Amino acid sequence: MSEPVDILLRRLKSIMSLSDRDQEIIAGLPMEVKTFADGTDIVREGQRTEHCFTVLEGLAGSYKFTGDGNRQIPSLYVPGDVPDLTSLHLSHMDTGYRVLTRATLGFMPHRAIHEACSMSYGVTGVLWRVTLIDAAIFREWLTNIGQRSTIARLAHIFCEMYVRYEAVGLVDGDTYSLPLTQQELGDAIGTSTVHVNRVVQELRGRKLIHWADGRLKVLNMMDLIEVGDFDPAYLHLSHASPKAVSE
Amino acid sequence: MSEPVDILLRRLKSIMSLSDRDQEIIAGLPMEVKTFADGTDIVREGQRTEHCFTVLEGLAGSYKFTGDGNRQIPSLYVPGDVPDLTSLHLSHMDTGYRVLTRATLGFMPHRAIHEACSMSYGVTGVLWRVTLIDAAIFREWLTNIGQRSTIARLAHIFCEMYVRYEAVGLVDGDTYSLPLTQQELGDAIGTSTVHVNRVVQELRGRKLIHWADGRLKVLNMMDLIEVGDFDPAYLHLSHASPKAVSE
DNA sequence: CGTAAGGTTGAATTCGATCAAACCAGGTGG
DNA sequence: CCACCTGGTTTGATCGAATTCAACCTTACG
Fold it and tell me: Which of A88, A117, A138 sits opposite B138 (nearest CB)?
């Protein structure tokens, strides 16, 4: 019997062991489930909000625009993630959130989450930890964009998404869902669409990945990790992920 | 009568109003004060730690190395900041921390911080908020590095440091301490040292800044903000900072 | 003094952005 | 059923920005 909250619990358990009581508290959070069309804005920059949402199905992302209209996508969110947990303690959003596919989200009122936190320091801990892992991913992306070549950036992000999907059980035969346009991918790694296209072709040419119809298949994990200079430590999964980690 | 913990309190109050009781709890945290020579490593990547530290004097930074030896400095920390608060909930560090000048730091045991948090959800809230603001700064830097021109990146970081120093009362006559080498600055904004040098000269040539002897003076804040596409909202200061914000 | 660290400058080269256009598949409507 | 449109991908040519490499300068310091 699968409840919407299950995917969230699966994610939380992937980063920390939870007591039965804490799991019950979290499972008891009221959650309103809604489905959105591809490209719908969930929260806009500058907005205030009374809920946090978790991704149940599909892919979401945050975004920021610069003064001259460029867009950065600082992060992507897979099922089980809680993108705007930050709104729990920061009054206005410094970034917007939107779904990058048709997606189903679960909304939980701030009030209920605060109550759950004050009932258990363990619940506080795991949610805090979620936000800290988000920050760790930002640091890694900063390093990725700031220091690595474009091909390494791409390989790195493909590895990361693999491990994150795997942590919630959504990798099937080395394949996972990656329904991004090359434009969006470019906005995520700080390069132009045209250049993304060429470098993706390079990765395909080297037989490292197969990417079509919004699904990415890793053909050679060892080499992809090597090219992407990838080490999953920054994802802070409690049990290191099987495939990607074994060296 | 000035205690070491005062600067921390000043910082916390700049982002959230604190009840008297919460201030007392924080002021009561045991803090061991130590001074370090320029360039000392405080925590290394992969390490575990039993303390968090706050910067009392000087400048600290985090750093990550890529496989081929490039360094990224994902963040800088001014007095009042608590760089490794993340260690409270993540077992190993995914980044190193080092002081970039001679610096004085205050170390607080995790145990004591956890105790303070479980005594008051307000204390939990403000510390959590500190980590969320760190994350917000990462997002902004990501946007900065990913989307803005080099001159904008530099102007942006100069603005940010101004506002952050000002929030803890350390700006004096539009001047603040910025004892970075151009190399370090390059590692922070993802460009080469040589290019940093040329772009700094461009900013000097435009009479926007004066930077010498480790101190940066803003000569024309309006234009610097304009060039840097800077908006301090992401710093989430509770009372918007006077100078930088007035448009 | 001599050395080291940081800053500055020039020239050559490479990488990636930009511009422009073609291509391709799926969906729509006449 | 075909023509058209749209969103996304692919390709080529050109241009500019930033890296690299190397040298030189200044200052602080033992």
Answer: A138
